Inverse folding.
């Protein structure tokens, strides 16, 4: 049975789908959001995973959420509060020492000097280089990439891009070229000599990136994580009070205020295409939702290979989509704890600033490289790279008094296990490897576990539509960025089917909880709507 005809129907109620919905509704369009799960938010949700314990289920930390999106969607007015980490990071070392990363750059330089005077002296220049390149690329986050062979608007975008990159100057352009083409390991080896400092920066190059830190192009992934800011401070990471679901719940409240209809438990089975136009969607329950515009907030492979009849697409395009690389090598764990982890590198009792940091287990680039090699050989790292956050140390709403919640984000765990092994059979053994590794640094950790939620790459795909468990909806390689995300010729949020658009992380600027793809897609949809309205008036 067909329902009312909407101006736009959005497939997927993740943060980008909600962002897009708000901008479209704010412009006067009738909008319906369809979410397969029982809760909106996609991978940015807060759920109870053990009695009395709540946590951000998949995504887990805030930095990349765009300030314009925060402002335009009135997220603070809808209750969103983001706390800055009092200490950015902690890198425990096997010898009982640790590299601490205070929020203050001068204090960080003093800490680095403990490991290398040379590195401390070079640190400001490195930070300045990363900052310059990140600032220039940050300016492109809310831009629509030019489409090769496009019209005058695309030519103008390309000219502006060239002008912006020219402003970097010769030295900045060389830095940009190196970051896009070289490995993070090679760049960091050129700059620094101390293993802990190189590991600290190298971690950002392997987060959500199933690759060695010595893989060509991995330096860009490091840079991608430098785009963020919290409360106006660049390069800072924070915690959303109430978990990541607080972001998407605030978005949903703004969407409701603007008249957006949100339906959960509504799985889309097929995009309806008539005469090369998307005209609505079919649901698993047999209903049809007609719409003048269909917007997909799902992985491009899921959209084009599962939700659209192959006959509606050119074989060459389908071939490129099949080759679109997904799989971030991530295992995600949420752990309920009876007590605070007691790291050997910390002195004293109770909550310390280090407990409120991102705690990175991965003491060297060589360690990270071996973790990737293990995953290629065995299916997962024998000594995994782990980032632990303990959000209950800054947000007591997540756990009972005196108890804690730990988020574990773990690399490298192969999207597909060797020899056809199912992840369901390897799940517990992989999680145990993580627990044992954390316990090496915090001896009370294993014994303090009350319960946990384990999400393998297969679980992330099944639960959240993250193909290959890819948290970015596609690898962040040079061949899948900007105008080539998801494929060259369709980087402007439009699809090869009229009336169909993409607004998810499989479009520019890529993964993370940013809201940028949703914002950019809405702008392009509204441009097309106005263009059609203008042509109708002239006719």
């Amino acid at each position: 049975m067909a329902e009312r005809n909407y101006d736009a129907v959005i497939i997927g109620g993740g943060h980008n789908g909600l962002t897009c919905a708000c901008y479209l509704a704010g412009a006067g369009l009738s909008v319906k959001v369809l979410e397969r799960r029982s809760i909106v938010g996609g991978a940015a949700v807060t759920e109870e995973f053990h009695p009395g314990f709540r946590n951000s289920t998949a995504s887990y930390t805030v930095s990349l959420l765009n300030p314009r999106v925060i402002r335009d969607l009135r997220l603070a007015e809808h209750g969103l509060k983001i706390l800055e980490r009092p200490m950015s990071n902690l890198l425990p070392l096997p010898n009982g020492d640790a590299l601490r990363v205070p929020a203050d750059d001068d204090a960080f330089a003093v800490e680095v000097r403990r490991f290398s005077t040379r590195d401390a002296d070079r640190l400001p220049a490195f930070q300045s280089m990363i900052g310059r390149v990140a600032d220039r690329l940050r300016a492109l986050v809310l831009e629509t990439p030019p489409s090769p062979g496009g019209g005058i608007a695309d030519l103008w975008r390309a000219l502006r891009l060239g002008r912006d990159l020219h402003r970097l100057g010769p030295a900045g352009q060389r830095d940009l070229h190196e970051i896009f083409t070289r490995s993070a390991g090679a760049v960091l080896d050129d700059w620094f000599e101390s293993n802990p400092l190189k590991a600290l920066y190298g971690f950002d190059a392997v987060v959500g990136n199933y690759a060695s830190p010595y893989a060509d192009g991995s330096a860009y992934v490091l840079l991608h994580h430098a785009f963020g800011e919290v409360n106006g401070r660049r390069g800072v990471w924070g915690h959303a009070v109430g978990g990541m679901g607080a972001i998407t719940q605030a978005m949903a409240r703004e969407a409701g205020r603007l008249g957006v209809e949100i339906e959960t438990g509504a799985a889309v089975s097929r995009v309806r295409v008539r005469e090369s136009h998307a005209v609505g969607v079919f649901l698993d329950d047999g209903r049809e939702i007609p719409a003048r515009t269909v917007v997909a907030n799902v992985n491009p492979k899921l959209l084009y290979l599962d939700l659209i009849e192959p006959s509606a697409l050119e074989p060459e395009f389908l071939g490129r989509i099949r080759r679109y690389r997904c799989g971030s090598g991530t295992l995600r764990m949420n752990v309920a704890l009876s007590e605070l982890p007691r790291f050997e590198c910390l002195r004293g009792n109770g909550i310390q600033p280090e407990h409120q940091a991102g705690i990175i287990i991965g003491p060297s680039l060589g360690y990270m490289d071996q973790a990737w090699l293990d995953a290629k050989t065995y299916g997962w790292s024998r000594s995994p790279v782990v980032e632990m956050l303990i959000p209950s140390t800054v947000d007591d709403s997540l756990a009972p008094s005196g108890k804690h919640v730990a988020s574990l984000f773990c690399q490298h765990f192969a999207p597909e296990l060797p020899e056809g092994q199912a992840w369901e059979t390897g799940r517990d053994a992989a999680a145990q490897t993580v627990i044992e590794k954390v316990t090496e640094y915090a001896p009370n950790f294993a014994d303090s576990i009350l319960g946990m939620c384990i999400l393998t790459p297969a679980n992330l795909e099944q639960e959240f539509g993250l193909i290959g468990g890819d948290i970015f909806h596609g690898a962040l390689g040079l061949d899948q960025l900007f105008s080539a995300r998801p494929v060259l010729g369709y980087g402007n949020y439009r699809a090869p089917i009229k009336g169909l658009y993409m607004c998810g992380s499989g479009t520019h600027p890529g993964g993370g909880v940013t809201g940028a793809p949703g914002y950019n897609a809405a702008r392009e949809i509204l441009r097309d709507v106005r263009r059609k309205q203008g042509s109708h008036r002239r006719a």
